[in-house]
């Protein structure tokens, strides 16, 4: 078992990402020794100014990943690797790259952590691809939606397999953090972010009944939960806020929050023709998640969804 008072060596793969960077900042502030895995580029300076030790490695190169972890000698490895576009319109097109990174890059990282004798291994999973009955929230026993269409299904299957591999590795404490959609600084969902621009330009519509329920989480709350996961009980946690809402409620509320007009409506038939099956799935099939276990075990205390303070939450 880890002792909270000890300074830890924490290896973050994906250390310059939306959660990787603020997580590195929080850990450095705590006094932990942080090693950030990244490829060469301008983002390296963002790690150095925090006091992060930079480790150069390509997630798809198993040998370089092993060398990086062996050199770092971390107590904990955290996989925050993602491959997502700056423009959310391109998310479905980018998902295959992200899926490959999760499947192949994650396998290299996990293999290296086992070989190096790492004690704890934490991965980023998805709290918005979980299966639950209509009107219910998914808890940690829920399976990912592996039957989802096209690129979403491929992503869910790769994520589910990765979760299983981590939890089945007896030589380390595996932790699966199923985050909701990130919002806040550095994300798409902020007043000056990409989604706000789409809403202001009336490029984002509620599809069909907009009954797909989304769980969000503020990026700083996700960071706090991840820090707690360094030392608390291993296992699966849904890292989501208390306000799971259907698209038909949260998207208009978001528009008001960013001083935009009410989003237009689009029929399922028109969306299938112009946007695609995946977009329809996001708006009509997603299920919200419950954070009960994270609150109990990680002392998780997420803030209310900032743009939906007056919107009723789905009953638990």
UniProtKB/TrEMBL annotation:
<dbReference type="InterPro" id="IPR051783">
    <property type="entry name" value="NAD(P)-dependent_oxidoreduct"/>
</dbReference>
<feature type="domain" description="NAD-dependent epimerase/dehydratase">
    <location>
        <begin position="10"/>
        <end position="239"/>
    </location>
</feature>
<dbReference type="Pfam" id="PF01370">
    <property type="entry name" value="Epimerase"/>
</dbReference>
<dbReference type="InterPro" id="IPR036291">
    <property type="entry name" value="NAD(P)-bd_dom_sf"/>
</dbReference>
<dbReference type="InterPro" id="IPR001509">
    <property type="entry name" value="Epimerase_deHydtase"/>
</dbReference>
<protein>
    <submittedName>
        <fullName>dTDP-4-dehydrorhamnose reductase</fullName>
    </submittedName>
</protein>
<dbReference type="GO" id="GO:0005737">
    <property type="term" value="C:cytoplasm"/>
</dbReference>
<dbReference type="GO" id="GO:0004029">
    <property type="term" value="F:aldehyde dehydrogenase (NAD+) activity"/>
</dbReference>
């Amino acid at each position: 078992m880890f002792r909270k008072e000890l300074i830890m060596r924490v290896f973050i793969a994906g250390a310059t990402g939306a959660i990787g960077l603020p997580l590195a900042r929080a850990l450095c502030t705590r006094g932990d020794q942080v090693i950030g895995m990244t490829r060469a580029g301008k983002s390296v300076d963002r790690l150095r100014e925090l006091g992060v030790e930079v480790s150069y490695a390509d997630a798809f190169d198993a040998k370089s990943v092993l060398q990086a972890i062996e050199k770092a000698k971390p107590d904990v490895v955290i996989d925050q690797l993602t491959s997502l576009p700056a423009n959310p319109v391109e998310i479905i097109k980018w998902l295959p790259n992200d899926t490959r990174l999760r499947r192949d890059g994650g396998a290299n990282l996990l293999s290296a952590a086992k070989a190096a004798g790492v004690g704890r291994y934490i991965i980023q999973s998805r709290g918005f691809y979980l299966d639950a009955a209509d009107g219910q929230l998914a808890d940690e026993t829920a399976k990912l939606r592996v039957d989802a269409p096209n690129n979403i299904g491929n992503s869910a299957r790769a994520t589910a397999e990765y979760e299983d591999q981590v939890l089945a590795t007896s030589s380390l404490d595996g932790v699966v953090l199923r985050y909701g959609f990130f919002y806040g600084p550095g994300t798409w969902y902020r007043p000056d972010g990409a989604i706000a621009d789409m809403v202001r330009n009336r490029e984002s519509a509620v599809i069909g009944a907009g009954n797909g329920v989304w769980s969000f989480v503020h990026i700083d709350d996700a960071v706090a939960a991840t820090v707690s996961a360094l030392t608390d009980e291993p296992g699966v946690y849904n890292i989501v806020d208390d306000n799971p809402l259907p698209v038909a409620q949260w998207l208009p509320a978001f528009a008001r929050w960013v001083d935009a007009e009410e989003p237009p409506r689009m029929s399922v038939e028109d969306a299938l023709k112009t946007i695609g099956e995946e977009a329809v799935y996001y708006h009509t099939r997603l299920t919200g998640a419950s954070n009960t276990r994270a609150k109990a075990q990680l002392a998780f205390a997420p803030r209310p969804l900032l743009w939906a303070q007056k919107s009723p939450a789905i009953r638990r």
